[in-house]
């Protein structure tokens, strides 16, 4: 037996480490929650780590999962051992190739972090919908329940696949297992080597395609033999379970860890057994052990090998005493009379009974649980076992939700705890994504794992916001391996830490606290005042639960140690000091070691600063004397303010408050449809400082409104009288524009929605003449301003939008008077994408249809609880949907085609009913153009008149026309997405849509990297930039999507960067929207993934343009019709070296530190590429048109 | 054969021409050319405190601890596997220069704070530097701060560095001290082995278009060297510290004047950046020719021979010369009359 080597890793790393050792070609594509498997493989390869045969595997990122699967198929046919990692939609895209790979009996293992499939909504969270959708591909399916098994089964799968020639889909629960950090016993290279039989690998290679011994594979077959061919493989499927068991047995000999195809746990004479697959199996096993020690006879079958299903082995695993069986599926097959595994088990039992192999047919019930990572707890397991005691079993029941509509759900006791979970020490930490709480906790798990014999488990819950993301860390540690695959529940945590004072107003975190536990609060209040800062309910909880209450001013400790606002090591030290998991000195020494490991030689001073903070922590950590009774007079405010619409109060507010799990089925929209305008009700108060308007020096240029990523600063025109009842501090002045007849203007901040990025101040061009540091906008602390500005903003919103027809839409100050219909998104503070979307909604929002590719823009655009898309005062606004990642252009085209088709139909009906409608109105409805907003508005009036008229027309065509009359109003179709979509996975569709004549506007938010999944390389990534999957710098230059589109000649194409030339962007949006064919706007969008603080957003855009990294241009086919060159280059020749731009972004500079020579070469090439690209565009823009004598160059 | 050798910081150098801190020490080829051209030692490019700090901040925020709390991404950059900080590069460069050059290598630390960076001197020593230059590029713009406090900052930094290294230390000074000779005495007491006169503060400019402040680099010219020359002349013989002249040495004449005033070594940077390493050879030959023509035997003979203490009239380097100069000025014809 090998010497056990304990490591602390998450499930993804556990699986990827084995996959890396056993493979030669690894083709990948990022998708949550599987991305990190590919990233790790790429990093290991970049670092020269070798597989067990001593070679560095080739790791290649493809354009989609379909591409990755194709590459794997090819690599396998070429004789290499090849693998991939994916989940959810990615797995769906692989399915066609999986049929091929299985049909050709090719050994490989795909590792899947199982995740929900998008239906009425996308979800990144874990269930078995994806793997169940792949169950007919012919792949074997092997499940792991925890990180230890994710590692072990990865190896068993590889060995069995080679032995039995079936490809294996090895899966484990997304997030629950893929992201669970746990202490596991590591496999060493020798064990991995011992499990893989060289002879079998040689056979695999011998079967490969080779001109030395050529064969043909992948033929086309006719009805005569196809069927027989399919049956020919039966023997391989029949034999495969035995191969898997044999490899499991061999693995046990090598490691001492024995697995079976169906692992039974529980009483040998159990009367009730649950059959389950995945992480839930551990929870059931823990519950079974508890129930059995308390007098019950229960058991669990943990299904490992789901395909091929060995019914003999399944039946053999069941105790003979079983009377009833519950099969739990982590998926839903709508319309079926049971989920897949339930039906498999049922069929197996029925067949055995029919064949006389079972004395009696047990009762069998099937149920669903855990969809999209819904919690699955011992209380729910107990509810199942309790339900099995009854005679009439409930069928297709559900667990973990309240189904008040179809009444399928089983009620459960949320307070039920197992003995095993009581033995563990549980701790829960509320932190901000940016304060390092998660990384400190991951660290703590490692420390506990490495410094003690304790087992440890960490699980991390994130909210769906990018700016000000809240994280909740759930840590367990105890003497035995931890199999609690569920979050820490109420009354369970011996330690509750609140790392941000303002969370006291938001979360009921002490619900989690166990009796006599500890509450640790990071607060700026002095020790003797800290008690008073708590809401009354919390005080009562501290008293009732007899909690010890500790406080520290971690910000002060960090600040004094020179660490700024980085409080993670301070809070970590407090945890160890109070919890006593380790002796204090040992704990502190371990924390210091961990700090040294993180920063090492690279950040020696950071190590010292951390040490200083750690050493200063204990003297600043104080216990608060808890009074006998609560003294506080305030309670946590409601999640949304008074005045919210009913839906927001009943539904959205519950989600914001963190009570979404309790929302009953009946309250859910049936088809995933939600109202707009909900983000305005979620006041997040993230900004430490907000802009203050200096109306005396402001020139009312509108640039601040234009650049704001969160729509948190607005301008509005109104009459002096309208402001008569304004709050006293509401600022407004007479507008400087003469044409508004003395109207007043206000620039107003939304104090609770601003994220404090400061870009508006950066954009402000106005300086006080006597004091250049004072601008027309200046940042000032939010807290003292909050109340007054909240009232001011509320008053501001009560003012009507100024007549849109009197405002110039083509100037920045004018267009910024238009109401935005996209506000307060959850995007990162300083986001480079959102201003483009907001601008589109200001100009065209009342007639917009948005097709949104999956990515950052779909997350901040449509992730519950709220959406930033909103309506105007007439209730009109952008209608939005996210189809998929890969099909967005096609999806948007469909919206266009529907609009056009139904407009045609409506026009036909208008013609048919022309006499009844009146020929004047009919003529106008049919023939007056709608190229401008006033024209569209007039058409709306006509349609209203039409509908009015139709009421009195009794012909059936009138009814039909009523249903489609609104299609007579021109719609503006916007197809929005990132570069991952446009350049890579969706490029085929985008290209096809561009090739059509239809009027769609494609807005590519080009961050030059996959932003949402964490910074992986796309074909938009520039030469030499470091990104995930390009750890050594991207070797190829950025794809020129604009030029490819221009090649069609009928596409309007533009490159914009609002921070470099704001008016240019505005102009492009107008031109693109008015162009009656396809328009492609490629919008430069600085992103945190570039490794630069986004307060520099505008500077980065400016540098990108000045250095020639990003050209500004417009290609307008209408110009060609007018006899002019359609290409207009709008940025001047590069005026600074590319290096100057690159030196400001970590994505470029980090390579200079690791590979200086390569970096220097990249910079040189990138410089040349930038100049060349500029020269090419310039040349194109100066080309004479056929018949034209001399070139015409035009610059604005 | 004229003996061109000189002693500086306890090191015996074959001649007094030493390239000062500049990008020319970043590439081994360039450094080698300087040596071949006759340089007797090399001051490396400066290791800037602020550069290290901002690099640390970047590392901390974007590479080492990337966690930002997004469910879909734990970070945005691949974790740096072979990342070497600019300090690592600097140490490697010391090692590389020492391996390929015969001449002594003087490492240069540039910064102002007492927050732990001077301690890095120990690592520079370990990497093989022959001496350290401590460049306290401090703009004394704090209205609360007295001149003594400004001087104290230099002394404190020097003392800390002194405890960390056994190497000779040269302090590169700004020209703005109330009493330079007295301050130099204090530096001597605090453990310095030399002073380099003077640091050139790069002067910011104003962009009249957008009213922003522009940072700019302007290379020196010969006239800059006269300020240095005067103070060398005043200090020579009054301190045991060895003296380096830095700033504005572009020609043989410039170099000779420095030596005559009392410099032990003459630094060059702008002239080398502009004209290449051959300029150093030319000046060296020029010095030799000048000495030969005047039958000097050695540079030692020359050094400080025109310093203040060797003047019959010491006032030539003091206030009196100022009065003479003012009186001697007559405007060009036609300007005033």
* Low-confidence residue ranges of chain B: none
Low-pLDDT runs of chain A? 1191-1196
* Biggest sheet layout of chain A: 9 strands, mixed
How many beta strands in the DSSP annotation of chain B? 12
Q: Please indicate the count of domains of chain A.
A: 6
Largest sheet of chain B: 8 strands, parallel
What does this structure look like?
The complex is a heterodimer of chains A (1196) and B (337). By secondary structure, chain A is of the alpha/beta class. Mean pLDDT of chain A is 95; it is low at 1191-1196. Chain A has six domains: 5-211 and 237-255, Rossmann fold; 262-398, Rossmann fold (3-Layer(aba) Sandwich), CATH 3.40.50.920; 426-624, Pyruvate-ferredoxin oxidoreductase, PFOR, domain III (Pyruvate-ferredoxin Oxidoreductase, domain 3), CATH 3.40.920; 686-808, Alpha-Beta Plaits (2-Layer Sandwich), CATH 3.30.70.20; 889-968, no CATH class; 1008-1182, Thiamin diphosphate (ThDP)-binding fold, Pyr/PP domains (Rossmann fold). Chain A contains 43 helices and 37 strands. Chain A is globular and about 90 Å long. Helices cover 39% and strands 16% of the residues of chain A. A nine-stranded mixed β-sheet of chain A has the order 1-8-17-18-16-19-20-21-22, with helices on both faces. Chain B has helices at 28-37, 49-64, 86-100, 121-126, 147-164, 180-189, 225-235, 252-261, 270-275, 278-293, 299-302, 319-328, and strands at 6-8, 11-13, 17-19, 42-48, 105-110, 131-135, 169-173, 194-197, 205-207, 212-214, 242-245, 265-268. Chain B has a single domain (6-65, 83-202, 211-328), classed as TIM Barrel (Alpha-Beta Barrel). Chain B is globular, with a radius of gyration of 22 Å. Chain B is of the alpha/beta class. In chain B, strand 6, helix 5 (147-164) and strand 7 form a beta-alpha-beta unit. In chain B, helix 7 (225-235) packs parallel to helix 8 (252-261) and helix 8 (252-261) crosses helix 10. Chain B starts with 5 loop residues before the first strand and ends in a 9-residue tail after the last helix. The model of chain B has no long low-confidence stretch (mean pLDDT 90). In chain B, the strands form three sheets. An eight-stranded parallel β-sheet of chain B has the order 3-12-11-8-7-6-5-4. Chains A and B meet through helix 2, helix 22 and helix 42 of A and helix 2 and helix 3 of B.
